[in-house]
DNA sequence: AAGTCGGGGGC
DNA sequence: GCCCCAGACTT
């Protein structure tokens, strides 16, 4: 299976800037943070702009929070941007400005969890890590377990499966591990997609337990049940951040009253503004509110 | 283990 | 309109 996946990846992989040979470890790390819960096509322009302005951890560490949040723009989950800057500052302080190359050191950085630590260690430093993201979980669920979708939560059982199905040789060879991981991720992104998978184009279709079982639909337990959006605090916070990203400080009362969300009550608006201030995504001075660093 | 945290493009 | 997207963090 490794050989077939590798062969398929060699001819089908997208040419993404953070996969190029000359991309720095920092570039890989920035991409991994941006790609958390965010599709590649939306990350591309933000990554290019970020790397153009702040090509090193030191440059990122020195920027103002307002600049960081402005360049992040509408990528979503803006707390990721602040954590990325905090990670850059930790890299400067603890690692002399160089992105650390081990899973454990990476895990200690803000915003870096199990997936991102393994991904950066593997893709940027050729460490033989077992990488498990949403694509890989889905590919494994289908090919090896015969299920349409993995469960909602990442279980110890799935972690063991991912470890066990990685080729023996890849556990000691970083480059082999890298190919195995990235190829499985790419397969999940391009062929073995959540909806309408392109099984006829799949390089391992004849090995797939799910296909062999007749591609049974997902059980109700496996349905992901999308998070609600309309009317949530997340929507209100996002609308407030969009106002703040215009750059000018605004009167607190104006920010609270002029949101394009008539259904949002004042209690909710106040709660959301307070949470943005608490998260460091906004700052206030007397009655003015702005991105942190502007005031 | 469950909730929270953005935003947009595809179907 | 719903669903999903290279998750992390808190409770």
TrEMBL record:
Family statement: Belongs to the Nth/MutY family.
Keywords in alphabetical order: 4Fe-4S, DNA damage, DNA repair, Glycosidase, Hydrolase, Iron, Iron-sulfur, Metal-binding
PANTHER family the UniProt entry points to: ADENINE DNA GLYCOSYLASE
Enzyme Commission identifier(s): 3.2.2.31
SMART domains: ENDO3c, FES
Cross-referenced PROSITE patterns: ENDONUCLEASE_III_2
InterPro entries listed in its UniProt record: DNA_glycosylase, Endonuclease-III-like_CS2, Endonuclease3_FeS-loop_motif, HhH-GPD_domain, HhH_base_excis_C, HhH_motif, MIG/MutY
CDD domains named in the record: ENDO3c
Residue ranges annotated for the HhH-GPD domain, each copy included: 34-190
Catalysed reactions listed for this entry: Hydrolyzes free adenine bases from 7,8-dihydro-8-oxoguanine:adenine mismatched double-stranded DNA, leaving an apurinic site
Name of the protein this chain belongs to: Adenine DNA glycosylase
Gene3D superfamilies in the record: Helix-hairpin-Helix base-excision DNA repair enzymes (C-terminal) (1.10.1670.10), Hypothetical protein, domain 2 (1.10.340.30)
Keyword Iron-sulfur: yes
Cofactor: [4Fe-4S] cluster
